[in-house]
Amino acid sequence: MIRPTASTRPRWAGFLGLLALVAWSLGSASWADPVGPTPMDRNVTRTVTLLLKQQHLSKHPLDDEISERCLKSFLKMLDPMKVYFYQSDIDEFNKSSKLLDDMARAGDISFGYKVFQVFLKRVDERMASVEKALAMKHDFTVDEEMVIDRDAAQYPKTPEEAWDRWRMRIKYDLLALKTEEEVLEGDKAVEKLGRRYHSFAKRMHQTDSEDLLEMYLTSLTTAYDPHTSYMSPGTYENFEIAMRLELEGIGAELQSEDGATIVRRVVPGGAADKDGRLKDKDKIVGAGEGAEGEIVDVVDMKLDDVVKLIRGQAGTVVRLQVVDAESAKQKIINITRAKIELKDEEAQGEVFEVGRKSDGKPYKLGVIALPSFYMDMEGARRGLTEFKSTTRDVRRLLEKFTAEGVDAVILDLRRNGGGSLTEAINLTGLFIDEGPVVQVKGPDGKISAYPDTEPGTAWSGPLVVLTSKFSASASEILAGAIQDYGRGLIVGDHATHGKGTVQSLMNLARQLFGSGQLGALKITMQQFYRPNGDSTQNRGVLADVELPSLTTHLDVGESDLDYPVAFDKVDSAAFHRLGLVSKPICDRLKDLSAQRCQDSEDFKKVARNIQRYEEQKQRKVVTLNEKKFLEERAELNADKEEQKKLEELNSRNHKAIERDYYLNEALAVTLDYIQLMHVAQAN
Predict the structure, then answer these.
(1) pLDDT tens across 103-141, in order?
(2) Of 128, 274, 470, 551, which has the most beta carbons under 10 Å away?
(3) Counting beta carbons within 10 angstroms of the beta carbon of residue 70, is it exposed (0 to 12), middle (13 to 18) or buried (19 or more)?
């Protein structure tokens, strides 16, 4: 079964850097190191390589180039800062750098196990360095520096060099803890770091064959492009849950923090929320099945395995052993699982009043926040009439806005990483009457136009689309079409993400046997183009009115990824430009917005942060002199800023549309747009 998707965010991106994971995934529990490939691994691998050969957009052969890319990606995934492996390990691995393609064709992934076993050995060795570095007294007045640039970093050649790297790494970690909200000094900081590194080592040893197969095959598939990936059965199930916006469980987002499972957020309306005893920041230390079930200790357990114990069918009971975040006392909570709808990922709408009309009444601006282009694929396949649909939800909001007499609509796609291609096309159709929404080119080079199939519009008034560098794929289809038609104004970061490719999801069990759980291959099969013929690939959709934002400067765009598909163009499709946006209007809107931002204290702070971020980003080393370190971090912590923005992108904790300084400026631009349109129409 092939299903088109247009989304980003691969699971294993930054695998070792993830300190917090949203606990909706399902993994198979395993406490032993993976020993070797299973017979099913061979079948899955051979199927993946065959599908890559037959279906991938690039038609790139599985050759030595792909083999070398695969090795680089796998090593980068495991040891991004080059602190675990020795250079001699890398030299040994490189002897096979041009053989991995031949091995993969034969279904042989034993090389992945070989590398991972060496990695686990090095992790255990480095733990001795961690213990030694934590026990020693560090001199924070010395002017020494640690390399923080991944490209500039080198693998250690000797145990002495490795030790010195880890001595400085622990020294850096101790300094970094002093910049956190809760300042940690002395023994507390040492204890926290000890737990962090011991927990990491344990989690690595909990990697099972399913995890390793996913990591290794994704290293192979991303050698073709950044968005082709293998999904294990657990990841595939997680993907489908995300698309239909519902699951069965207790309704709590969990994260792993230094070996502990922490309640990141209790989902409003879920079973835990209705029960009332489980709170944000509580620590789950045990879980059991049934009202009288034996409680299993989950301290230092892999997060996916904790989730497997907690999640289950609606109507069943799970017992949780919990340490209260406030009192630190332990308690046992029995919660009956229920179906949970992830309402926070649905389209949300709110009406804001701004300015004054000639009659003294305020303008009403309707804002729709859309986190993704979701669709219940299983419900659609089964022919359900009311399956979950982005377009259906947004249409209802637009009808409500019309009834309330709004003057303009703002569609906020700033944290929208994509989703269903079908939904992107249908949703665009709510704002245009007819014509092509997107053009798609397949591996055979044939161009097909996908038009708006629904006659009429749900909203024909002024439209503003709010975008960021995180707006990707399906978001760019909509934004590009709106811009090409002159239907509305694009406001936000300099450009969107730049993901102009379309992935299809292939259930491998259906490919092999017709049923079963073998995971899926998300494969890039098509490239999409705007109605005017431009691809959004690498370039993105440029804003008509750019607002100052740190996210514009983050290295999170398509062009920042490894091995992206190249930008290109095709012939323009035939479509009627509506002309609701013109260059004179855009130029005037830019001037008005720039003046407001120049006078705004909030945007002045953004400008200062951008300057400091750019300065820090250019550095390849960081000082380990405490006085200098804390002075620099007092101004801006570039790493923290990046992490904060990424967490905001992935967070489900968006209970309402926040009217902050940024949205206020977007509202002001929209008001200017309405008024300039009235002037243009009057003339």
Answers:
(1) 999 999 999 999 999 999 999 999 999 999 999 999 999
(2) 470
(3) buried
Instruction: Look up residue 596 and give its DSSP letter.
Output: H
Instruction: Specify the fold of 246-341.
Output: Pdz3 Domain (2.30.42)
Q: How confident is the model at residue 501 (pLDDT cuts 50, 70, 90)?
A: very high
Determine the Cα–Cα distance for residues 257 and 259; give it in Å rounded to an integer: 5
Q: Out of 283, 441, 499, 645, which one is annotated catalytic? A: 499
Report H helices in 149-299: 159-177, 186-205, 209-221, 233-244, 271-275
Asked if 438 and 479 count as a contact pair (C-beta separation under 8 A), the reply is no
Catalytic residue among 372, 473, 535, 593: 473
- Helix, coil or strand: residue 351: strand
**What tens digit of pLDDT does each residue of 454-492 get?**
789 999 999 999 999 999 999 999 999 999 999 999 999
Q: Quickly tell me which residue has 């609606």 as its tokens.
A: 314
Number of neighbouring beta carbons within 10 Å of residue 137 = 5
Residue 1 has pLDDT above 70, yes or no: no
| Nearest Cα to Cα of residue 597 among 666, 548, 549 | 548
The reply to whether 129 belongs to the active site is no
* Residue 559 annotated to the active site: no
Is 282 a residue of the active site?
no
Q: Give the torsion sign (CA, 279, 283, 289, 293).
A: negative
602 φ, ψ (degrees, to nearest 5): -65, -45
Domain ranges (residues) in the chain: 28-231, 246-341, 344-437+450-497+535-682
Superfamily, domain 344-437+450-497+535-682: 2-enoyl-CoA Hydratase; Chain A, domain 1 (3.90.226.10)
Selecting among 304, 484, 534, 544, the annotated active-site residue is: 484
